[in-house]
Amino acid sequence: MKRAGPLTAVLGALLLLPALAACGGSAAGSGDDGPSTSVVETVVDRVEPLSGPAPTPELPVTVDSADGERVTVESAGRIVPLSGSLSEIVFTLGLGERVMARDVTATFEQAAELPVVTRGHDVSAESVLSLRPDVVLAESTSGPAEAVDQIRSAGVPVVVLDAALDLDSVASRIEAVATALGVPAAGEELNSRTADRIAAVQRDLPADGDRPRVAFLYLRGSASVYLIGGAESGATSLIEAAGGIDAGADSGLDRDFTPITSEALVAAAPDVILVMTKGLESVGGVDGLLELPGVAQTPAGMDRRVASVEDGMLLNYGPRTDQVLASLTTQIHETGSAR
Fold it and tell me: How confident is the model at residue 198 (pLDDT cuts 50, 70, 90)?
């Protein structure tokens, strides 16, 4: 298997609680004091399928899997995607009615009633096989490896995709899923739509003022996990595309995540703090966030400038990345240029 994506690797190493990408509701605890609090309700957690009739897969196809296998997909009547990101792509391609199950990170509205085939973030091979899938789509981070091998050993085609790490991942992942499911034309259409929407957001970036320094914090208060993202967190590309500077990476943090310390935050000196919605809720909202070491002493902490994006959307790098980018752009620029 390929190396894990940065956030998934951190989760596995720390044995965090489930629901990395569980989402829903607005950020809590924004507080009534302080100059300004930039916590904005984000977009509705619902995907937008391509318009028109659902595409008809043209199969069989043989594709390269990211784990080095050559995989032949003969039918796509019963699809099991093993991540929220892959589920999002399948539904947006117009093939949602063929999806038989989801994992815990597929939290968007259309997938909510599907059976879950993961325990925490671990794939249950038995649950997957009980659904008699024609094809399983997995991430290079999907595991344990034994479960993926068990599914493949049962004769089910398993197509593994590299983890999404940046904006450049969007087009390649949509193309890979569409090709594996025999709907390459739908993949081209979705890629064109997605690229146009991302470009439209970037055309509207503020032309004046300094670029705000944005620190991505990964928070799980229930597990006492408080991390600041660095160059390999997966958020750098998104922050830069929104017209900001990744404060963690710019301060010299070259790893994916580092435990939050006063020293690390002083060095990062963020104007805005970026968090996942559930993470913010887990520490008691903005008021609780300001109690973490060093946060209140940063420019972001002093001005209570916090950007919140739904867990199930922030780092998906897929068909809804334009919505994430638009929300983030509004939030990090809304109170004027950074100081």
Answer: very high
Q: Cβ–Cβ contacts within 10 Å for residue 11, how many? A: 23
Q: Which run of H or E residues covers position 14? A: helix 6-14
Contact 195, 252 (CB under 8 A): no
Q: Which residue type does 332 have?
A: I
The kind and range of the H/E element at 131 are none
Distance between CA atoms of 233 and 258, rounded to whole angstroms? 10
Task: Tell me the two tokens of residue 334.
Answer: 């809304």
Round to whole Å and give the CA distance between 209 and 79.
47
State how far the alpha carbon of 267 is from the alpha carbons of 86, 174, 235, 258, 331, in Å. 36, 37, 18, 13, 22
SS3 assignment for 144-177: CHHHHHHHHHCCCCEEEECCCCCCCHHHHHHHHH
Helix (H) or strand (E) holding 135: strand 135-139
pLDDT greater than 80 at residue 95: yes
N-terminal to C-terminal alpha carbon distance within the chain: 44
In percent, how much of the chain has pLDDT > 90?
76
Nearest to 217 by CA among 228, 208, 230, 206: 228
Q: Are 141 and 147 in contact (CB under 8 A)?
A: no
Residues 6+ apart with CB under 8 A from 151: 123, 125, 128, 129, 136, 158
Six-digit token pair at 100? 């038989």
Coil/strand/helix, residue 84: helix
List the structure tokens of 4.
Answer: 């894990």
- Whether 215 contacts 229, CB under 8 Å: yes
Tell me the per-residue pLDDT of 200-229, one tens digit each, with 9 for 90 and over.
999 988 877 789 999 999 999 989 999 999
Q: Give 223's contacts (C-beta < 8 A, 6+ positions apart).
A: 14, 16, 17
- Are the C-beta atoms of 103 and 118 separated by less than 8 Å? yes
Rounded (10°) angle between helices 169-180 and 184-203: 160
